[in-house]
Amino acid sequence: MSDSITVIQVGLGALGRRLTPFLLERPSLQLVGAVDPHPDLAGRDLGEVAGLGRHLGLEIVPDLWEPFSAGQVDVALQTTVSSLSAAALQIQDLLHCGAHVVSSCEELSYPWQTEPYLAAEIDRQARAAGRAVLGVGVNPGFLMDFLPLALTAICRQVRKVTVLRYQDARARRLPFQRKIGAGLSPEQFDARKADGSLRHVGLIESMHMIASRLGWTLDRTQDTVEPIIAEQRVASDDITVEPGQAAGVRQLGLGFVSGEEKIRLDFRASLGEPDVQDTVIIDGDPPLRFTVPDGVNGDIATCALLTNAIPSIIDAEPGLRTMADLPPITWSAE
Amino acid sequence: MSDSITVIQVGLGALGRRLTPFLLERPSLQLVGAVDPHPDLAGRDLGEVAGLGRHLGLEIVPDLWEPFSAGQVDVALQTTVSSLSAAALQIQDLLHCGAHVVSSCEELSYPWQTEPYLAAEIDRQARAAGRAVLGVGVNPGFLMDFLPLALTAICRQVRKVTVLRYQDARARRLPFQRKIGAGLSPEQFDARKADGSLRHVGLIESMHMIASRLGWTLDRTQDTVEPIIAEQRVASDDITVEPGQAAGVRQLGLGFVSGEEKIRLDFRASLGEPDVQDTVIIDGDPPLRFTVPDGVNGDIATCALLTNAIPSIIDAEPGLRTMADLPPITWSAE
C-alpha cells in the first residue's frame, strides 16, 4: 500500500529472528531489508533464517547501506548489542541514511546519566537528520520504568518505587538462559560476573528514568548480582542444571536519595523460578500494588514493543527519545 | 520561586475543594487564584472553603477574568461540569486569557467522536492561543482507557479489552454517592436514569480513546445503566440505604467492531460493593491481567491526575490533547 511504513531489520540474532514474524503480520508495515554481516547469515533468505518455513525473497545483506540504495527506509529496527558504545556507530550510520531507529539496545533506554556524551551526540545527530531514536524493550523500557512511572499519575505522594520481576527462564530464548548463567558452577558464575558478561543490563538505566521524571536526585545507585543456586535438578530444552549449579541470577538495583532507598528493582531469572510475577509497588498516597500474576514473557513483550513503537517513532519529535517522553506506545490492528 | 508555575482553580465544588491541598503541597506550583460564581462561595477565602483550617489570603472571585488581571496565569484547573457543551465556553475564555487548561470535564477526555464540532473548535482555539487543553480524571482518563492502552504495548495481538472497576462508594465524596443513585427507590432510580442525571459519564469516551489508538473502527457502542439493589441495610456517613433501595449503579459500556464485542467496560459503584477491584484484562498474545486488589480511590486519583498533569500540559504541543497522545503523566517531587 502507498502509505505503508518501510522497515529494515539490523541484527538477525535470536531476538531479531523472533522479531521478523511480528513485523510481517502488521498490515501497515512493509519489511524491505535485513542486515547482518555474520558469515553464517549474510546471503541467506530472511524467511529461512527466521524459521518461517518459507522464503520472503529478502536476502540478508552484510552492508548497512545496501537496503537504502533500493529505496526509502522509514524505520530501522536494531537488535544487535546491549552496549551503547557498541551500538552508537551503527545508529549514526542509520540516521545518516535517513532512518528513524528503534533499538533493543538496553543502554539506549535511558542513557542521559550513564552515557551522557553518547546520549548527547546521538540526540544531536538525530535532530540534525530530522529523525528520532528510541531504545526500548520489556526491561529496561517498560516493566521496571515506564509502567511504574505511568502508575504514579494517580498518586498524591510517592515515597518509594519497588518492582519485582521474577521469571522462569525456561520460557525464554537460549541466549537469555546463557546470559543469566544457567548451568554454571558457582566458580564459573563468579568469573562471568567478574568479567561483566553475566549481568542483565538495564537496572541502572531504569532507575535513572524513574528518578528523572519523579524529580528525585539519586546520590547513589547500586546494582548487585548473585547466583540463584539450584537445590534440585532443573532443565530447559537446552540446558540442564544440577543441584549446586546456578539456575540463574538475582540482580538487585537500588537507588538512594539523600541516603534513603527510594527505588528497588528486584530482578530474578532462573530455570524453574518458583514465584513468577511482575509486580509494581508504589509506597505512596494511595499505596498501589499492580501485579501480573503469571508474569510477562520478555521475548514476546520486547518484540511487541519494538514493533508497536514503529508508528510512534515516526510521529515523534526528532532527537533521542525515551519511553518517559513519548506518548504511550500501543498495539495497533493497522 | 521564579520558575514556579502559576495556577488558578475554576470551580470550588466538592472536587475543587478536595483538589486545593494537592496543589498547595507541590513546591513548583503557585496557587494564585480561585474562581466560583456561586453566591455561597464568592468572597470567601479559599483555605476556609477547602476546609484547610487556615486562610490562604486567596479570595474566591466570581469573575473568570479577575485572576488574570493580577498577573500571569500559566494553568487553569477546571473542576466544574461533566458536560463539554457546558464547559466549552469557559475553556474558550481561559484560553483567551492565556492559560493552559486541565479539566475534570469527563466529556473532554476524548471528545473527537462524541462532540466532534466542539472538539475541533476547542482544538482550533487552543492552537491559535498557543496553549494546550486536556480533559483528565481517573475514569475517564486513566483506569479504563490510558492504562489498558499503555499495557497493549507489550502485546503482539489484542483481541479484546475488558476493564472491571468495582468501587465501594462509601469512600467517595457525597456528590459521587448521590450521582450513583445511592438511597433511591427503584422508581426514583429509573426516573433519574430516564432524565440522564444518574449515569456515570465517560464510558463512551473511554471506548473511543481505546478504539482510536488500537486501530479499531467501532460500528456500535452501548452504555447501559441499571441499579444495584441493596439486599441489606448499608450506610455511608451521609446516606443510609434500606434493603430494596438502590445501593448504587452498574454501568456497562460495550464497543463492537464488525458486530463483535471488542471492548467491555464494567463499572460498578455502590455503598458496600463487595468485590472491590480495578482490573484490566487484555485478551491477546500474551493474555494479560493487571489488577489492583483494593481498587483505586477515585477522588484521590482524580485530584492527583489533575495536579500531576500541570507540568505535562505546559510542555505539550498547543491544541486539544488527550491522555492517549501525551507522554505519561507522573507524580513529581518538584
How would you sum up this structure in a few lines?
Two copies of one chain form a homodimer. Chain A is of the alpha/beta class. Helix content of chain A is 29%, strand content 27%.
Class from helix and strand fractions of chain A: alpha/beta
Largest sheet of chain A: 6 strands, parallel
Q: What do the pLDDT scores of chain A average to?
A: 95
Q: N-to-C terminal Cα separation of chain A, in Å?
A: 12 Å
CATH class of the largest domain in chain A: Alpha Beta
Q: Could you state the oligomeric state of the chains shown?
A: homodimer
Order of helices and strands of chain A: EHEHHEHEHEHEHHHEEEEEEEHE
Report the portion of residues of chain A in β strands.
Answer: 25-35%
What is the helical fraction of chain A, as a range of percent?
A: 25-40%
The CATH superfamily of the largest domain in chain A is identified as NAD(P)-binding Rossmann-like Domain
Number of beta-strand segments of chain A: 14
Q: Determine the CATH topology of the largest domain in chain A.
A: Rossmann fold
Low-confidence blocks of residues of chain A: none
* Count of runs of 4 or more consecutive helical residues of chain A: 10
**Tally of distinct domains of chain A:** 2
Which pair has the most extensive contact? A-B, 48 and 48 residues
Approximate shape of chain A? globular
Numbering strands along the chain, what is their spatial order in the largest sheet of chain A?
2-1-3-4-5-14
Q: Could you tell me the radius of gyration of chain A in angstroms? A: 20 Å
- CATH architecture call of the largest domain in chain A: 3-Layer(aba) Sandwich
